Every structure is written in C-alpha cells, then in structure tokens.
Amino acid sequence: MFTMFKTIGDQFANFKIIRRMAKYDDRATYQSHYLGLAWEFLNPLIQIGIYYLVFGVALKRGDPMPGIPYLPWMVVGIAPWLYMNKTTLDASSSIYRQVGLVSKMKFPVNVLPSIKIYGNLYSFWTMIAFGIFLMFLNGIWPSLAWFQFIYYFGCMIVLMYSLGILNATVSILIRDWHITLQSVLRMLFYMSGVLFNFTTSNFPAVFVRLLELNPFYYVLNGMRESLLNRGWIWQQPNITLTIVFWLFNLVAILLGTYLYNKFRSNFVDLI
To answer: Cα dihedral angle (76, 81, 86, 87), rounded to 10 degrees?
Structure first.
C-alpha cells in the first residue's frame, strides 16, 4: 500500500516533466509528416466516419437511445474508447521503449505511462468537442448531469494509470504481453457498447450484466449518460458498477506498483 501511494505521489511531483515530455513526444512522432500534429485529430475522425457509414447507415442501427440519433451517441462513446485503447497500448510499451534512456540518469521511471496518458488527451478533447457539436445540432443541450462528466473523466485517468503501470511492467517480464493486449482490446471494442447499445438489444439479461462489469464500458457509458442527460451515478445499476470499477482499479494499481517496485532494478537486464 505504501508503494502505491508513493507511486501516485511521484505523478504529482513530476507533473511538469510529464507535461513537457508529452508535448515533445507528440511533436517527435509527427515531425516528418506534412500534416504534422493534425493526424492526431484526423485519424479518429476518419475512424468515426467509417464506423458511422457501416453501423449507422449500412446496417441502420437506428437510435440506440430513445430520442438520441445514432451519430452523436456513437461519437460521445467512441471518443473515450479511442483514447483508452491508444493510451492502454502506448502505456504498456512506455517503460520498455524508454528504460534504456532513463537508466542512464536519475529519472522516475514510473511516470512514463503518465506521459502517454497526458499526451493522448489532445485528440480526446477534440473528439468530445466534436460530439458536443453534434449534440447541439440535434437539439441536445447542457444540463446538471453534465457535471458528472468530470467524475467519469477522473475515472478514466485513474483506470489508464492503473492499467498503465501494470501493463508496462508485465510487458517487460512477459514479452508476448503487448501483443496479447492488442487482441484483448480488439475483443473489448465490441464488448464495451461502443457501436451498439447491448442493454437495449436482445441479449440475455445475465450476459448484459457481465458485459457491464467491463471497466471500459463503465467509463464510456458514464460519459454518454452524463452528456446525453440519461442517468445519475447513484442510480442502479450504476452504484453497483461503481463499486466493481473502483475495486478493479485498486487491485490493478496494487499489483502494478508491487511488480514495478520488485523488478524495476532489473528492467535493463530483462530487456
């Protein structure tokens, strides 16, 4: 437990370093591209266009929520998914890719996942702004429920770091882990309610309850319900899912910080 609080404290103590390195990392990634950082926003927009044409037009999903058109519903949900998917993969390889550099200097290695978490937020906010724009076009206006978005945003950041420190450490110990994680995330894409609302589909009730335990679903569905004015945190089944979500994060960050502190002195040798 002490190592967990110390690791969390390192993130706040080194926030300026995290912010500076995240900006440098983004520029370095796209410095040889003609459009530069614009690809941070073009890539998710292209994906949104493809998914809308396939699921919203070709398959005619209709309105997944009563009175809510498919496009704003999809964008508000796919924005956190694209962020969480990319950040989970980036964070899982963050220590592996940089440990050789930071091993030569005094540097808190446990902030490397946070650099990816911070750096990927630019495209996330752009997608959320696009989703809100679509909501306004369809007559969906702000309400008090929007304040819940702040809570779910905090949930997303906590989830990303819990998984980040765990996956980044395991990826060094088990070299196949990053590839396995890619396959798991592809499966979770269809099990997180990103493109269709399985709670209003003909799925068995027991199967729906199991799908709702997915922490990715908890975040993106919570953001949807907040911005689309469809629910409150303390309502059932949200309160039960909230308890499960925070227990999952607690286990992930405890295990992640334990493994990190146990093997960090051997990272260079393991690589």
So the answer is: 100
**Can you give the pTM of this predicted structure?**
0.87
Instruction: Let me know: does 88 contact 167? Beta carbons within 8 Å.
Output: yes
Convert the pLDDT of each residue in 144-167 to its tens digit.
889 999 999 999 999 999 999 999
The residues with which 68 forms a beta bridge, in sequence order, are 65
Cα–Cα distance between 157 and 146 in angstroms, integer?
Answer: 18
Of the candidates 119, 125, 114, the one whose C-alpha atom is nearest the C-alpha of residue 149 is 125
What count of residues does the chain have? 271
CB 94 within 8 A of CB 169: no
- Specify the residue for token string 């091993």: 103
Q: How far apart are CA 181 and CA 192, in angstroms?
A: 15
User: Which residue in 18, 26, 123 sits closest to 80, CA to CA?
Assistant: 123
Quote the Cα angle for 109-257-22, to 5°. 35
pLDDT digits 0-9 by tens, 53-63? 766 554 555 56
